[in-house]
């Protein structure tokens, strides 16, 4: 599969992540980003009729299975992250991002499902999963609500750079 500019950008962003240590200065914005990821994941799960796969799933495998199976690019990027602290399940989540970035199939007119998750990583590395809860930096928790709670039209989270900076500034005073 031909690697496009978007896939190259996503790969470079993943390669720049510090996977070993959380960045507590961005904990609050990471919570906001995770909530937006969960909202977008719910939108995609509903659109693709795979609510049972929500919240962490390979969107591309649902609408472009050929792209999801062509793992050469994703494998090479992920192999480059070995020994840098990238662990399961984040390796799988990164593969989903790379699959989505590489896919050229016509997809629904929905926001990029993985952009908020990529920013979570960029602002502080990984996170932990417990039953029904996402632990951000071992200090803050995000409840994994059922997808239908994220499907109300008025629910969305501002993840603009300024909004994220304001959240972190407020909580780091």
Write the element-wise H/E pattern from the N-terminal end onward: HHHHHHHEEEH
What's the pLDDT, averaged over the residues? 91
Strand count, sense and barrel status of the largest sheet are:
3 strands, antiparallel
Helix content: 40-55%
Secondary-structure-based class equals mainly alpha
Q: How many DSSP E strands?
A: 3
What is the multimeric organization of the chains shown? single chain
Structural description of this entry:
The protein is mostly helical. Helices cover 48% and strands 6% of the residues. A 3-stranded antiparallel β-sheet has the order 1-2-3. Strand 2 (133-136) and strand 3 (140-143) form a beta hairpin. The longest helix is centred in the first third of the chain and has 21 residues, at 27-47. The model has no long low-confidence stretch (mean pLDDT 91).
Strands, helices and their partners?
Blueprint: H1 5-15, H2 27-47, H3 59-63, H4 65-69, H5 72-80, H6 90-102, H7 115-122, E1 128-130, E2 133-136, E3 140-143, H8 161-171
Antiparallel strand pairs: 1-2, 2-3
